């Protein structure tokens, strides 16, 4: 077999190997389905690894209020849980349209196929449970009419005086159909939009991420803001 044939086999197999030093979160396996309540109170969550080193990439010397992320998976689902401490939760509501999430506190998870970001897929979820799902292409070409594949996404949230939690289940079938799940690996960005002021629909944010993107100004829509979720 010649080198060209080997290359074609690797490409058609859809195998993805993370780059050296890529930040990786290991998603542990659970045998049972998780009951999605928005509270993250299912007993399986006790076995998940906790990712808590989120930061302000563009706010020198400042530390955000605590944010944590957990994930688990089983045969059919990827489960994710964001837990956010925030004493000033801002939610913009007018017509209850999904684009109103843009002016609200929220957690975000993006998925990319490759560094070209053509395309990539975005889920932005506010504390009331509204989901802004859209497809993007580099650079900042968004289609907000797009929706996550039907039946492939379950979202519940829980709001308290201390903050909020966002719990979601994403079907592996949807991730596979979008070309995202390869070799038990997902290229994903994990973010939080901290709305520090809201006047009507005009919102002011501080941006939070588990990775410092290679950008001098706030921007998650670039390849360097993504890490890896490795399904064990």
TrEMBL record:
| InterPro entries in the cross-refs | Carb-bd_dom_fam9 (IPR010502)
Q: Which Pfam families match?
A: CBM9_1
| Biological-process GO terms, alphabetical | carbohydrate catabolic process
The entry's protein name is Carbohydrate-binding family 9-like protein
- Domain of life (superkingdom): Bacteria
The organism encoding this protein is: Chryseosolibacter histidini
The molecular function GO annotations come to:
carbohydrate binding; hydrolase activity, hydrolyzing O-glycosyl compounds
The signal peptide stretch is none
Instruction: Supply the CDD domains for this chain.
Output: CBM9_like_3
Q: Which SUPFAM superfamilies match?
A: CBD9-like (SSF49344)
Q: Identify the residues that the record assigns to the Carbohydrate-binding domain, covering every copy.
A: 36-232
